[in-house]
Amino acid sequence: MRIDTCFDDAARTKSKPVSFEMFPPKGEMSFEHAQEVARALAVEQPDFMSVTYSAGGSGNQGATAAIAQFIAQETHIPSMAHLTCISLFKDDLAVKIAELKAAGVANVLALRGDVPLHEASSSRPADFRYAKDIIPHLVEAGFCVGAAAYPEGHIACDDLARSIAHLKEKQDAGASFFVTQLFFDNIYFYRFQELATQAGITVPISAGIMPFMSKQQISRMIFLCGASLPAPVIKLLARWEDDPASLRAAGIEYACQQIEDLRAHGVDGLHIYTMNRADVARACMSAAR
Predict the structure, then answer these.
(1) Domains in the chain, ordered, with CATH?
(2) Whether pLDDT at 214 is above 80
(3) Is 39 exposed, middle or buried (0-12, 13-18, 19+ CB in 10 A)?
(4) What's the whole-model pTM score?
(5) Are 116 and 87 in contact (CB under 8 A)?
(6) Model pLDDT, residue 127
C-alpha cells in the first residue's frame, strides 16, 4: 500500500496517521531481532512503519528492504524503506531500486545521509549530493516517495529560510509527504509549518517525536540533530538525573504531552521514533489516538 493513500484516507476521515520508526541500536541489529521488533511494534497497529537504512546490521543496507518486506507481508502494515544517497553513483542507485522492487517495497524515504570521512578525499564525487537528486528517479521507478523535514533547520544549514526552500525543492522533485526530524519544543514545529505553507508546501508533514530515555541520549540528539532543549526538559533532566527509571518515565510522558498538543493543533501526521521499544510505541499511540 502506498503511504500517500494513508494521508488521503486520513484527510477524508479527519484522522491523523500515526507511524513508527525502527532502527538499529548502536548501528547493529540481526534480521531475526528486527523481525521480533517489527512484530512487537505492529501490535499497536500504526498506519505505517519505516525502517532505517542499514537496519539489518552495520554496513548491511540491503537488509532494510528485507525488513520492510517482512513488515508488509507478515504484519500487513504498510512499510517504508529509508534510502540515503550521499555516496551513490547512478549504477548503485539502479541496483538499490532493483533490490527494493524485488522485495515488493512500495514506499521509500529519500535522505541525503551522513557524509563519510573518505568522501572529501575521493577523486570521483558521487552522482547525488542531496535527497532531491534521487527523488525523481524513485518516482519514475514507481515508488511513493517521502523526504525529511527539519523544523529547526538542518544542522548543516544555519538559515531556516534556506531549509524551507530546500523542502520546496524536494516537493517539486516529487516527494508526496514529509517526516520531520525530532524536536522537543512544539513551538518550533508550528513556526516551521507556517513558513512551509507560505513557501507553497502542500503535501502532508508528519511530526517526528522521540521520547528521551537518558541524559546521554538527549545530549547525543542535540549534537547530531541541532534540536533545541527547552526549559521543561532541562528541569526534568536535573530532577531525575540520578534516577534512570524515573527519567525514562518522564521522557515518555513529555513526548505524550507533545503528541497530544500536536494532535489538538491539527498536525497532518505523527511519526514516532520508537527506539524499537514496544512500551514507547504503546504509550505514544495512546496519546496519539
Answers:
(1) 3-211+268-278 (3.20.20.220)
(2) yes
(3) middle
(4) 0.92
(5) yes
(6) 86
